[in-house]
Specification:
This protein is an alpha+beta fold. The chain has helices at about 80-90, 115-120, 130-135, 245-255, 265-280, 290-295, 305-320, 330-345, 355-360; strands at about 15, 25-30, 40-45, 140-145, 155-160, 170-175, 185-190, 195-200, 210-215.
Length: about 375
């Protein structure tokens, strides 16, 4: 089934042949994934996969029926628990992401496309709703938000419209990527790549993505400027980009590993991570998650110097403090640390220890 070529409220998608729900097999022009705040689009080549096709409709055996809503989770799910569930698919395939498919279910019983992935994260009935089902308020799963500014950790960005073709998609909002809210970190299940964690701009500006909140999503972490005590460490792996990667690279350098702080999680960074994990008796999977972060960070304070201070300055600058990332923890860095701690309800002592590191990396 082919797409109609379109220039909608979303960025233009130019297709050559096959259309896919949740992902397009073609050359896709999508918003930039860089953390620079640029609004310029970047072109991503998406190769055709043999299992791609129109997203399963509500009457398909691959989709949880509306009449089976009683099989869905009834207890309130915390935001942190939902995000942790989403993260499991990043490494569930022998340390790699769960592959994308609209015709197959993963080992846990959920369909391996974008809406099946979100259904898994929310603990909905197997094999999962499709995007239309997730967005339909009559199903009692989500409610539509009035604006992007209301987004919190675990909320959804959904393009459920079929008026301009069969392309539909849903992603899980984690946190804002910067203080200007021009991009955010999200989890998604997409063709060719499978489960990914990256910066997106869906829903920002003029496109077809609308914000939704799962109705049974409770407390445990927000996506705005103030974190909860349960704020989560980010998960970085091959392909990740941005300030968090740069900070991780600087922290690795502070531990004696030769890594260029280029903000791109490439083979050399992964190799250094694996070596570091082995040295600390951690699971050597090359993925920087909570356990690795807790060993990788260093407490820095007034008078400290080096790569770990640069990493802290890199993170503080994400919040607009405008520090020179010179590796010297002086009065300006201390003032920024004090202001950050006060704004995020942390102990205000100017010392960047585990709690402040987690807030710096896990909030946006």
């Amino acid at each position: 089934m082919s797409f109609h070529s379109r220039l909608t409220r979303r960025a233009q998608v130019t297709l050559t042949g096959v259309a896919a729900g949740c992902v397009a097999a073609a050359i896709v022009v999508v918003p930039s994934l860089a953390d620079s705040g640029s609004s310029e689009p970047t072109t991503v080549a998406a190769q055709k996969g043999t299992d791609y096709g129109p997203e399963p409709e509500s009457d398909s055996k691959l989709v949880t029926r509306v009449g089976e809503l009683s099989t869905m989770a009834t207890a309130t799910l915390s935001r942190d628990t939902m995000i942790n569930r989403a993260r499991t698919w990043l490494t569930a395939n022998n340390g790699g992401p769960v592959p994308y498919s609209m015709e197959r279910n993963w080992k846990d019983g959920y369909r391996q496309d974008c809406s099946g992935y979100v259904s898994m994260a929310l603990g909905l009935g197997k094999p999962g709703l499709n995007t239309v089902g997730l967005a339909d308020s009559r199903n009692g799963v989500t409610t539509r938000l009035s604006s992007m500014s209301q987004l919190k950790k675990g909320d959804l960005l959904i393009d459920y419209s079929t008026t301009d073709g069969d392309f539909r998609h849903v992603v899980i909002f984690e946190k804002w990527a910067n203080t200007s809210h021009s991009a955010y970190w999200a989890y998604e299940q997409r063709g060719t790549y499978g489960t990914t964690h990256r910066q997106l701009k869906y829903g920002i500006g003029s496109d077809n993505y609308d914000p939704f909140r799962p109705v049974k999503l409770g407390a445990g972490g927000g996506g705005g400027q103030l974190p909860s005590p349960g704020v989560s460490w980010p998960v970085l792996q091959s392909g990740s980009k941005g300030a968090d990667v740069r900070s991780a690279q600087q922290l690795l350098a502070s531990r004696g590993y030769t890594v260029e702080a280029d903000s791109v999680f490439g083979p050399k960074t992964r190799s250094a991570v694996i070596k570091f994990q082995k040295s600390r008796s951690l699971a050597a999977d090359g993925v920087i998650g909570p356990n690795t972060w807790s060993k990788l960070i260093k407490t820095v304070q007034n008078g400290s110097s080096g790569q770990a201070v640069k990493a802290a300055q890199t993170q503080l600058n994400v919040y607009g403090y405008g520090l020179a990332a010179d590796g010297g923890f002086g009065s300006k860095t201390r003032s920024a640390a004090l202001a950050f701690q006060k704004n995020h309800h942390l102990q205000v002592d100017g010392v960047i220890g585990p709690d402040t590191w987690r807030a710096l990396l896990g909030t946006r």
